[in-house]
Amino acid sequence: xxxxxxxxxxxxxxxxxxxxxxxxxxxxxxxxxxxxxxxxxxxxxxxxxxxxxxxxxxxxxxxxxxxxxxxxxxxxxxxxxxxxxxxxxxxxxxxxxxxxxxxxxxxxxxxxxxxxxxxxxxxxxxxxxxxxxxxxxxxxxxxxxxxxxxxxxxxxxxxxxxxxxxxxxxxxxxxxxxxxxxxxxxxxxxxxxxxxxxxxxxxxxxxxxxxxxxxxxxxxxxxxxxxxxxxxxxxxxxxxxxxxxxxxxxxx
Length: 252
Ligand code: PEP
Description:
Elements: E1 5-10, H1 17-34, E2 38-43, H2 49-55, E3 61-64, H3 83-88, E4 93-96, H4 99-105, H5 109-121, E5 125-130, H6 134-138, H7 142-150, E6 160-165, H8 179-197, E7 202-208, H9 216-220, E8 227-230, H10 237-248
Parallel strand pairs: 1-2, 1-8, 2-3, 4-5, 5-6, 6-7, 7-8
Helix pairs in contact: 1-10, 7-8
């Protein structure tokens, strides 16, 4: 998995038992066909973790969560789901610090650090999401902002680090950075991870933000882009399949 391209879907707050079943069934063939080259995963709402795990039995689609509690223990935290519970139902990973969590739930570095630590203790792979807003990009602060978001990695003793670079202004908007901007940020993120975590760390840096069937191949061919985190286009079997297939194709 550390050599493959990663294609991860983020279903956000979408789906139902019936529609999930249909979607996962339709992904069985393309995911299996791509499995030598592409590591495929979807982050589902927590209530569907168990049923989704059942539905992918027998084919290599990894099921994970979109978030985890900042609390690592059990007890009086109504509505929360801790990392041990995610591990208990077989979640393979959790997204941490998605921009929607940062925006609507005021998740800051202190909260995100505890989430990362709880994931690692529970053997759940955390995917740290980072990215700048449009105002930050327009004032040339993107590296400072993303550098600050990555800084919490220095507090961990992680041997494997997965980061999703998702410019906030590209999420769900249809706007994407140029391939040059993507290359520059991914190279920067690689450099930061190596200096924060040491040269032996295993790294995957995914791009996220309006990836679709038309732009996937070009984005996936950018240096230091190890895969994609896909929101809207992961909700339809046809579009998610086309993106998985783009990840199989030789670099442009
Ligand atoms: C996301 O929210 O992680 C995302 C990448 O969304 P979209 O692909 O819809 O822009």
